[in-house]
Design a protein that fits this description.
Layout (H helix, E strand, L loop, with lengths): L1 H4 L10 H7 L2 E5 L6 E6 L8 H4 L3 H20 L8
Helix pairs in contact: 2-4
């Protein structure tokens, strides 16, 4: 649908691989109180094929970076030490 209309889409998910596979930009939020702790551009070419991305080195690197930012956001909020 997005490829047809090119309208802005705001997609909220807890699934990091889904976020990286679908987004052009990922905003990572901290735990309570929810604050944006990272604004990450996702520079993967389109069209994207989700199954092919699972072995793509760039996808895997971006996925790891999002995890790092999420863990940092939890630590900043006083959450459990890296446990999600």
């Amino acid at each position: 649908m997005w490829e047809r209309t090119r309208r802005t889409v705001v997609f909220i998910t807890h699934d990091l691989s889904e976020a990286v596979a679908l987004a052009d930009r990922v905003l990572v939020m901290s735990a309570r109180p929810g604050r944006i702790v990272a604004d990450m551009p996702i520079n993967l070419p389109r069209p994207r094929h989700v199954r092919a991305l699972q072995s793509d080195p760039t996808f895997l690197s971006l996925y790891g970076q999002v995890w790092e930012q999420l863990e940092r956001g939890i630590a900043m909020s006083g959450g459990a030490s890296g446990e999600l």
